[in-house]
């Protein structure tokens, strides 16, 4: 490759000369590659204004990554404030938005932290490592809070199931999630897999993790107390994951050096497992003042955030950072996103013990700096000062944009294209064929091929895992206290109406938690959208946030934190707006959980809630008519609350043997899944006033199907009546077929073949 | 076989020996705590052992748990086998101390040459996690006396490198000496993987899921009995509990005799 002559285009001056603070002050006019690093002209000017001089190369590197959309939330910040402003009062929230992850009180002295993050773009470029490091990153967020990670979940979106590239991306993503999570010893208890052509070229790989701790063990990411030591521990720092910095690498160094480093990081789950154990041991011995994981923006982020959250001052000697590659420049060291690294702030007299614990676990740990008085973050290299900034300006005072947003013109036409007008099955034979086609469609079919690549059992506390409505874990072996987590999102609904679609995602996750018998407590979100520079996308984004914040208020479940992923688009075509919502619930005794399997003959089937003709965005409209139009199902949040109350009470008092939420695919999908899981058939009767198609396929929200033992029937229907929840008896668990009286009968074996063959057929 | 309890302090209240079972933690061990729980549920006392310690303390038996020791980047179990604790485990195993290797522990036992054969990557090249049906072939080992020969049980299987291989002579010897302890039985789980040549979930030769040494004190298997000991979690079955009650009985009856 040819190299530009020294000077122009390099972050500092000639490569031989270190760009120190002093040098930067003396050479204000040197051209700097701010545009290549992703800064806008006015952002670069702002940096100069903040510093009162031009930034050094190292400072430019830090500002460019920390002021990126990914780290600064500059397009979304303005709107995300609603989650705080509209937050319902909740005694359960111990730590709110802004920390590595929110913390929720689940009683008996236990606290839970949970979060979902996106790793979309890396997973498209390199599916295995992209997905694997997504798991690694979210797990480090959890341990930085002082919690032991106890489970992971993986909400995934891919392009069309039969597209050749899906066969490249999906198996790699699944193997990466499994490879990393299995090796960490974390059960994978939930998630989703959705296919839609809109995600072609933009798969969504969201990774969620849950951690449990005692109240006393909550730790926040801050550095305070002058003289306290800053310890970097974990993996050595390498040249991997220097995203926007590839330009730095290619313009600062000699021809002999590799110029392009992979922008996707490479994960080492074994190293992370050691990090978990030694971090928790250090926490247990109360050795830690502050803790931060190294994720996006690596050391730039960890040092500036720790300092900014604390008293502000920190001095770091970059030469002390253990390296994999001794030729790395200080800019690269600051920007490297090498995985499996953590940063701890430790009082001087506790440093020796901290290092001893790291040594026990064979983890490399190095003191790289200390907390200082004042508000300056100073970084030294070869004895010279290369960074001298106010940490807050890097970490928390980045640009904030109020991007224009506008309801797109096509929205009206999309909503006018009413799915309820689509032709229904003409006769019973066609209806039967539609059911088979639905349950065999990639989105509705069994995902066992995927989930069987994940360990569900490790840690020995998994009470429920996919394909149950929510994953459930036992937290306390003595009392049976447990937690449940569900993640949901429906891009089709959200495309039709972003406000309602986001609320439906929340309602479904909330319902899924309640269906298993747990009480929903708190929400986390992962908001996946297209480019914020497109006013139509920005409108979808603002509407979705407004919908979510409003709904959280009604449901009484605060948002504890979240993640935003923008720019999910190829050219002009954005993905469906896809807010993925995670709801955490608590259950007093996991022995009371409600499974989804219809396991006993004679149990009476009740449909809870009301069914209307609602096909907009439905699986039926997609599978049978390849159609997306009209309005999504209506949301009634008070009804969702009531349904949840009934499901939780029924679980606690042992009134129901099984329950399954109704969502995409409608009643017939839920009944099919519960029958196949329990190995029992069901006889169903279409209620008066409903067409068979509406009964089977409509996706009205606020519904669940439950199996009630005869002995509990009177008590259960009495409770529904007293509380005003519609409950219609629609059939009985019986035989070895799913039979809709007067319409058709489908033997379980035929349903099972249809349901289970699709995914292996496409991917195996 | 005879197993002599080495350190059977009596539990005052019940008057029965307090059986102590060590569980080794290697860096990267994952099911160590779960194994300790299973031992407790069976009524014995779990004793955590650390890979860097040569001493096994006063334990009567040792379990090498599942996981990915040292990341298993080279070959599963190949590094753990050289850890200080394994030197003592091998020594004591040769003297007759019962040793159970589960999953990664089984891999370590083959690497340490306490058991013959080796483990390769699953034939379908995927990690596999499912509830697996097994047939008990030998109910006479230190770890299987509470089963009956021919009994079918369900034990969770979860591994990447679970394909048992050995040369024909070794396989014939194992069969002839009754040292195949468990065999994969049937394929009643719908994970969507194509049935493998030998109708085992990972391509193991002769559907071998677990084996023992000639003396019957060292047993290794790929499935995880510790995850089938509590009806509330995992698959909801307790088919794995007899592993731990068997070893308890071995010592209780040994002490009584």
Automatic annotation (TrEMBL), chain A:
Molecular-function annotations in GO: ATP binding; magnesium ion binding; phosphoribosylformylglycinamidine synthase activity
Subcellular localization: Cytoplasm
Active site: 70, 119 (proton acceptor)
Lineage, top ranks: Bacteria, Bacillati, Actinomycetota, Actinomycetes, Kitasatosporales
Originating species: Streptomyces sulfonofaciens
Pathway of action: Purine metabolism; IMP biosynthesis via de novo pathway; 5-amino-1-(5-phospho-D-ribosyl)imidazole from N(2)-formyl-N(1)-(5-phospho-D-ribosyl)glycinamide: step 1/2
Protein name: Phosphoribosylformylglycinamidine synthase subunit PurL
GO biological process: 'de novo' IMP biosynthetic process
Keywords: ATP-binding, Cytoplasm, Ligase, Magnesium, Metal-binding, Nucleotide-binding, Purine biosynthesis
NCBIfam families: FGAM_synth_II, PRK01213.1
Purpose: Part of the phosphoribosylformylglycinamidine synthase complex involved in the purines biosynthetic pathway. Catalyzes the ATP-dependent conversion of formylglycinamide ribonucleotide (FGAR) and glutamine to yield formylglycinamidine ribonucleotide (FGAM) and glutamate. The FGAM synthase complex is composed of three subunits. PurQ produces an ammonia molecule by converting glutamine to glutamate. PurL transfers the ammonia molecule to FGAR to form FGAM in an ATP-dependent manner.
